[in-house]
Specification:
3 domains; 7 strands; 364 residues; globular; alpha/beta; five-stranded mixed beta sheet
């Protein structure tokens, strides 16, 4: 229930902030154009009839304003933009109108706040996302190099690409086949980019492994590692991307990650489509990749045993149960001739539930 006298909506941008305040007693609407300075925003809020509650949309400006207002004793919500109700017939959108709309929704209790991470979680999340960006950069760098060679009919057929053997082939076989000097310079530029990006990825991997071994996320990473396909990098990324696992249940976390089918049903008809792909795309990709590991026959090898040795007995038992269940689901999908890519998404959705069960295991 809304208990503050004044509700404030802020439309926050990099260089300006549109503010609107609604007095719940007098009904007066106050508007202002502010700078992004936290001190100026607090000063303007201090002139309003208190107590005051503030809301602004989650976006590229981050959570600094939330932390500053909260530390000053002002209730603040960072709301999810995708969950805001918009008038269907409204065709005029301005910063001032957005601020007023936020203030009204806040007073009515119709906003959906996002989970604001702690500063340490946000720092770890930045590191994980830097590694994800580096992965994408490396993929594009490799594509540029391989497609350069493909345009000139040079194709590697010696097994898996981007291994030590493939690297020798690039330098000693592929490069001499490029005739023109300009093509050699192009190869050198692309190859150098691949090497530099690979080195950057390796440095980030080492930093993540070091943080995962000694941080507030260490115990959680060890528990998640009891599942196949979730090693240190994946477990740490899931831990920091999802943050507070207790917000969800085993069945709701799949919907949060966009792994449930979209639906358009009315009356007696029910139509389901592709997955919604809402929520955190990075965590969703990690789970989809991890789900492929459960397609193969389940055996407890040295790598998995080493990860189990770091986890408590209850996590090992639950991880073993999850691994058996997920492989059995793969077998069922295969027997039903389910398309592998579709079946894998179903496994990823269930894998998200098993990850949740391990994440909250500590309080069971």
């Amino acid at each position: 229930m809304f208990t503050e006298r004044t509700s404030v909506g802020l439309d926050v941008h990099a260089r300006s902030v549109a503010a609107a305040a609604i007095d719940g007693v007098s009904g007066e609407l106050l508007q202002a154009r502010l700078t992004p300075s936290f001190e100026e925003i607090r000063s303007w809020l201090g002139k309003l009839e208190g107590p005051v509650a503030v809301a602004y949309e989650a976006g590229p400006t981050g959570f600094g304003l939330y932390r500053d207002l909260t530390s000053a004793g002002i209730r603040c919500e960072v709301v999810a933009p995708s969950k805001l109700q918009r008038p269907a017939g409204d065709r005029v959108k301005t910063d001032a109108k957005d601020a007023i709309h936020l203030a009204r929704l806040l007073r009515l209790g119709e906003t959906t706040p996002v989970a604001v991470p702690t500063e340490s979680t946000e720092a770890a999340r930045d590191l994980v996302r830097a590694r994800e960006d580096c992965r994408g950069d490396l993929m594009r760098a490799r594509h540029r190099l391989s497609k350069l060679l493909l345009r000139h009919g040079i194709v590697y057929s010696g097994g898996r690409a981007w291994t030590g053997v493939h690297d020798v082939w690039l330098r000693k076989v592929a490069l001499p086949q490029l005739g023109a000097h300009a093509q050699v310079l192009t190869f050198d530029a692309y190859y150098e980019n691949v090497l530099a990006t690979t080195a950057r990825r390796d440095r980030l991997d080492a930093a993540i492994a070091e943080m995962a071994a000694d941080s507030e996320f260490t115990a959680l990473v060890h528990r998640l590692g009891c599942l196949r396909g979730i090693a240190t990098l994946t477990g740490f990324a899931l831990a920091v991307e999802i943050g507070d696992w207790h917000r969800f249940t085993g069945s709701s976390i799949g919907a949060f990650l966009g792994l449930v089918p979209s639906e358009s049903s009315s009356g007696a008809s029910r139509s389901q489509g592709a997955i919604t792909k809402t929520g955190n795309g990075h965590a969703r990709r990690l789970l989809v990749e991890a789900a492929w590991h459960h397609q193969r026959r389940y055996t407890i090898g040295k790598t998995l045993r080493d990860r189990w040795d770091l986890a408590p007995a209850a996590a090992r038992a639950r991880g073993d149960l999850g691994n058996r269940r997920l492989h059995a689901r793969w077998v069922t999908f295969t027997q039903r001739n389910k398309k592998p890519s579709i079946a894998n998404v179903g496994i990823a959705r269930e894998l998200a539930g098993w990850c949740w069960s391990l994440a909250v295991l500590e309080e069971d």
